[in-house]
Specification:
It holds the Pfam family TsaE. One of its GO terms (biological process) is tRNA threonylcarbamoyladenosine modification. GO terms for molecular function: ATP binding; metal ion binding. With about 150 residues, the chain is α/β, with parallel strands linked by helices. The protein has a single domain, classed as Rossmann fold. Helix content is about 20%, strand content about 30%. The protein has a 7-stranded mixed beta sheet with strand order 1-7-6-2-5-4-3. A hairpin with a 7-residue loop joins strand 3 and strand 4. The structure holds adenosine-5'-diphosphate and magnesium ion. Magnesium ion (MG) binds next to helix 2.
Length: about 150
């Protein structure tokens, strides 16, 4: 597990999200950690845009799972926000594993997965507020060779 840390602005978020989004492959799980308003959805939007999504992706806070599939994107991606999940038992019906067969998962509030989750998850943790945000990327082995940022 390698850890990288970057201070970033809102303008950088577009570039950082785009670079990570372009590196996504089927089967990938990206966990987006950070408080309310940290910038999780902002990064997910930039990833989706990099895969061809036109317009701004809505926050999946109320839908919980917002799936995207070709041709609107060039890689199937399910954008997930588990904030409203109160118990691990509610996760089963979301069927998140199914999306990994040919696509990727971007998961906000991955803490709600509890003991569930996937071993090769790329974890992106955002801290800070205002213009002083910090992104901490924890890379599993599967991401070491293709991590797109310095
Ligand atoms: N790196 C950043 N620097 C400054 N503002 C940011 C940055 N990233 C996100 N924001 C702003 O923070 C607010 C909340 O972002 P959002 O992505 O919705 O947070 P979350 O999904 O973590 O709740 C938005 O107004 C967004 O424009
Ligand atoms: Mg959000």
């Amino acid at each position: 597990m390698t850890v990288h840390r970057y201070g970033y602005t809102l303008a950088d978020a577009e570039r950082i999200g785009a670079a990570i989004g372009a590196a996504l492959q089927p089967g990938d799980v990206v966990a987006l950690e950070g408080d309310l308003g940290a910038g999780k959805t902002t990064l997910a939007r930039a990833m989706l845009k990099a895969r061809g999504l036109a317009g701004e992706a809505p926050s999946p806070t109320f839908a919980i799972v917002q799936p995207y599939a070709p041709p609107e994107v060039d890689l199937a991606i399910a954008h997930v926000d588990l904030y409203r999940i109160e118990d691990e038992s509610e996760l089963i019906e979301l069927g998140l594993d199914d999306y990994l067969v040919d696509g990727a998962l971007l998961i906000e509030w991955p803490e709600r997965l509890g003991t569930g989750g996937w071993p090769d998850t790329l974890t992106l943790t955002i801290s800070g507020s205002g213009d002083a945000r910090v992104l901490t990327a924890s890379l599993p082995p599967a991401w070491e060779a293709r991590w797109p940022l310095r």
